[in-house]
Design goal:
two-stranded antiparallel ribbon, 5 strands, HU Protein, Chain A, single chain, 2 domains, alpha+beta, 43% helix
C-alpha cells in the first residue's frame, strides 16, 4: 500500500474527503519526524512505539569489490509493535 492508497482507504473508512485525510497524514508525518529528531519517543499504546537508536561504527566490505570499508555510526528509527498490532497480523 502506498500513500495514495492509504489516503483513499482512510478517507473511505472515516467518511472524510481525501484532501482532509492527506492533510492529516502529512501533518502526522511531519510531527513524527520532528519528535524523533528531538530524540523523544512516540508511544501509541497497544499499537506501536517509535524511538531513535544508535548504530555503532563498524567495518564492512564493499559488495562489488570485496574491499574492506568503514561504515560510520548512524542514528536509526526503532519500531516496536504493540499487542493490538501483533494480534491483528496474526
Amino acid at each position: 500500500m502506498n500513500k495514495s492508497d492509504l489516503v483513499e482507504a482512510v478517507a473511505e473508512m472515516a467518511g472524510s474527503t481525501k484532501n482532509n485525510v492527506e492533510t492529516v497524514i502529512n501533518a502526522l508525518q511531519d510531527t513524527i519526524a520532528d519528535t524523533l529528531k528531538k530524540g523523544d519517543k512516540i508511544v501509541l499504546t497497544g499499537f506501536m512505539s517509535l524511538s531513535v537508536g544508535e548504530r555503532a561504527a563498524r567495518e564492512g566490505r564493499n559488495p562489488a569489490t570485496g574491499e574492506p570499508m568503514h561504515i560510520p555510526a548512524a542514528k536509526t528509527v526503532k519500531i516496536k509493535a504493540g499487542n493490538k498490532l501483533k494480534e491483528a497480523v496474526n
